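[SOLVED] Need 3D model of a three-part complex

Original post:
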Amino acid sequence: MLRGNESVAYAFKLARIDVFPMFPITPSTLVPERISKFIADGELDAEFIPLESEHSAISAAIGASLKGARVGTATASQGLALMHEILFIASGMRLPIVMGIGNRALSAPINIWCDHQDTMAERDAGWLQFYAESNQEGLDLILMAFKISEDKRVLLPSMVGLDAFVLTHTMEPVDVPEQEEIDEFIGKKKPEYLTLDANNPATFGAFGSPSHYMEFKYAQYLAMKNASVVIDEVFSEFTSKFGRKYSKINEEMMDDADIVFITLGSCTGTAREFIKMKRKEGKKIGLLKITVFRPFPKEEIRKALKGKKVVAVIDRNISFGFGGAVYGEVAAAMNGMDESPKIVDFIVGLGGRDITFNTFEEVLSIAEKAMNEEVDEINWIDVDKEAVEKEEII
Amino acid sequence: MKEITRGAVVKDAGNSVVNKTGSWRTFKPIINYEKCIRCMICWIYCPEPSIYKEDGKDYDAPKEPIKKLPVPVIDYDYCKGCGICVNECPVKAIDFVKEVK
Amino acid sequence: MRDIMYEVRFHGRGGQGAVTAANILAVAAFREGNYSQSFPFFGVERRGAPVRAFTRIDEKPINIRMYVYNPDAVVVLDPSLLDVVNVTEGLKEDGIIIINTSKKPDEFDFDYRIATVDATAIALSHRLGSSAAPIVNTSILGAYSKAVGNVSIDSVKQAIMERAPAKKEENAAAAFEAYEKTVLGWEK
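Solution:
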């Protein structure tokens, strides 16, 4: 029985990280607490570096990773936002750092609860992004992220999102693999390239002028494409070793479905139960869970949605001036496809507003309406619109 | 209906007084004025702060001259019952009794 | 065990261990071969402030991740909460309320089955916490086991030994004493 944060900490321990630079932030503080205990109890041989900010924590992670160390860290929300400029440096320098995120809303107003705004705001930072539905997935995805990130075809950092509180603070059964199994699965980190080494000096963090910069970005673009292949390989190896099935997207009850719900993260389980309930009433709904958001599984999603009538994208984020981030990506993935389904966006559960059966009930009623008539493109659910309209100039 | 202001501004200042944190209390500190020497250490340590200085002439005191000093008085609307005053009192003049509600 | 999900809501005050109680109950249920899930009401935890925590128990894997809105049982760790919180909110019709109090069940006016135990006195007699802040969470779990019966007192004791952050034996003994002393209002 582990809380989500403990899953992350156990995964770091099983991966035998060498360095854990950190700055604590709600809701992921329990990760560094557990890591420091593992180290104090002699269960993990790693360097624990408390720093004065998240900006410094990720900078230290870069330094340690450059030396060839396996590095893990954890943060959330404002902490991730403070890392923003350094995230691009980690990916640009091709450092396979793995970070656990307690997905939390961004200020203002101050809010410590769950949504995906923090990681969605970093989706262009060149990091792989995974979203966990459960604490088990949190543990497994962190382990797999090391193997994927460190693959020499990839060499990019990864972030694994666990929903704030809904996972980070929820205790549930988690199957923790044996150390030997993970040692065999991930193996020791082998620096594939130059490292900080006094005997073999090199320059890191160099200048990239217009004559060279773009080639480095193209290399990152290709590495992300490779990551897509490596993810499939690592997921299927994990499945064959540990029995738990992983794929970039997870399709359930899809064969005869007219309406498809697309979810990320912890609300997937509630959606699954809701859909099962509705299927008993004869409603043909399917569920598509996105586990890997970067690289975005375009092809898989195109294939899965072919022939469907309405796609309801459940977005726990908002890209202001556009709509939900997931909606945008799903709609773009459908570009040029014959018989593209109607794609409708739903903004739900921001700042920890509970996502319940009632939420999905409302989503479904709009999705069903969309089968025969036009509906709004972006739909905010569970929001007191009247209260807002009283104050804002509309 | 809830009020949603521009930029989440709260229009009134000092609004935390609305939240009467005294309801959180499990144990209640009671100052025994016959023992209290009015050193005001409790007043300094109270983190809320919910101990105020008042004119002390009408309160009991261990000695007559002490009555000239200001006296600490607990505001039970906001006292959370943390017990820090009880712990800090140098003459053990504050009892800590279970709140019966 | 039941074939449908059993949901429990804990009401306590920050520092009393309501969240740990929910966790230990989940561990106890898991030890008996159930699936379980426990979580706090997600918020800012302050010593003394009213807090809530939840446990779900089921024979099948638990998918849903919303708050508990219609609990089967409510556990009240602090009787002073009865004045400030509507502890029966959403409680199912055949629900059970377990209260830490020196009073007897028939002194309460709830339209539900009521079980009472003086968990504060039991906790203090086992030196759990201080008189200012008695740690009553393990004692009240003994009462839960007696009143609800879907986890055995042995499992509760084992879960306490596994999970209690300190004074494991004392906590387990307090749970057992509370189990013995719990008064079930529906058994006359």
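Edit: Residues 213-242 of chain A form the longest helix (30 residues).
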